[in-house]
Amino acid sequence: MDTTELLKKVRRIEIKTQGLSSHLFTGGYQSAFKGKGMLFSDVRVYQEGDDVRAIDWNVTARTGEPFIKVFEEERENTVMLVVDVSGSAVFGSHAQFKAEYLTELCAVLAFSAIANNDKVGVMLFSDHIELYIPPKKGRQHILRIIREVLSIQPVGRKTDLGKALRYIHTGVKKRCVCFVLSDFLAEGYEESLRVLAKQHDCIGIHCWDPLERDLPDVGLLRVADAETGEQIWVDTTSYELRRQYWHSFQEHTAATQSLFRRAGADFLSVGTHQPYTNALLQFFSKRSKIVAHG
Fold first, then answer.
1. Which helix (H) or strand (E) segment is 191 a member of?
2. Cα–Cα distance between 135 and 132 in angstroms, integer?
3. Whose CA, among 30, 87, 178, 189, lies 20 to 30 Å from 239?
4. Are 276 and 108 within 8 A, CB to CB?
């Protein structure tokens, strides 16, 4: 993709997703990710009526008079987008490749975040850490993220999600909202996810193509593994084969969702043939209710 084509594509995504992000923001993003808690601000002399549980006993002992801790609400979030750019992310049979769909998802989440005055960072991964952009604010920063996701030429083709999650756990010290966008065709990452979810607010967004669920009846078909390149012939006229294929997808999705739940993380599954706006709105609405009652 040359520079002119890339910039045009970035602009198209910006126009489309900025409008959608405004809709999502009013529809629940702000309330879905607020209330991370209270941050220590200062101490002051105890006054009658203050909560005695807020007394800072160290300062009180040092000064000889009672002081209390003063807290303020932590309003600003840090949002990390952890994006799968392995070989399987290139696959697509519908209107968009998964990679393009993931780019739009990243853009709409990023624009929603900066509308909430949040910082946004991104990490692109395969079986390598392909790119890390630290969290910042501003439109130009978001446009850079979109450009990088669109134009990345990954070194690796396979998926090492555990490595990616460990990188975030080590590198991002401040608690963040961590969106992991992938098809989750990976193994051995449950412990890394559990550790990360203890420190951060983790949400897995499972992005899949309809052809990964529904094998068409088109006779003999040569299929290739997007990550290994291995090719095999399959007889798609077999009803039993198509049924097993469908069940395998459903089992993988259910197992991935269960894995996220066990780790204390949220999970959202959306196909590239589906409008992601409705799925995100429903997700934010559900999160908002949990936050409100939390």
1. helix 190-199
2. 9
3. 87
4. yes
Encode pLDDT of 3-52 as tens digits: 788 888 888 888 888 777 776 766 667 777 754 555 556 788 988 888 88
CB-based burial of residue 42 (10 Å sphere; 0-12 exposed, 13-18 middle, 19+ buried)?
Answer: exposed
**Positive or negative CA dihedral for 203, 204, 208, 213?**
negative
Cα–Cα dist 294/286, whole Å = 12
**Tokens 């999160």 map to which residue?**
287
The single-letter code of the amino acid at 40 is F
Q: CB neighbours of 18 closer than 8 A, spacing ≥ 6?
A: 111
Distance CA 263, CA 204 (A): 11
**Rounded distance between C-alpha atoms, residue 285 and residue 126, angstroms:** 31
Question: In this structure, which amino acid lies at residue 201?
Answer: D
222 - beta bridge partners?
233
What is the per-residue pLDDT across 72-126, written as a single tens digit (0 to 9) for each? 545 678 999 999 999 876 666 655 677 788 899 999 999 988 888 889 999 999 9
Considering only CA atoms, which of 280, 281, 273 is closest in space to residue 100? 273
Architecture of domain 3-33+76-293: 3-Layer(aba) Sandwich (3.40)
Domain ranges of the chain: 3-33+76-293, 38-73
The whole-angstrom separation of Cα 259 and Cα 276 is 22
The answer to whether residues 267 and 283 touch, using CB atoms and an 8 Å cutoff, is no
CA atoms within 13 A on the CB side of 26: 5
The structure's pTM equals: 0.81
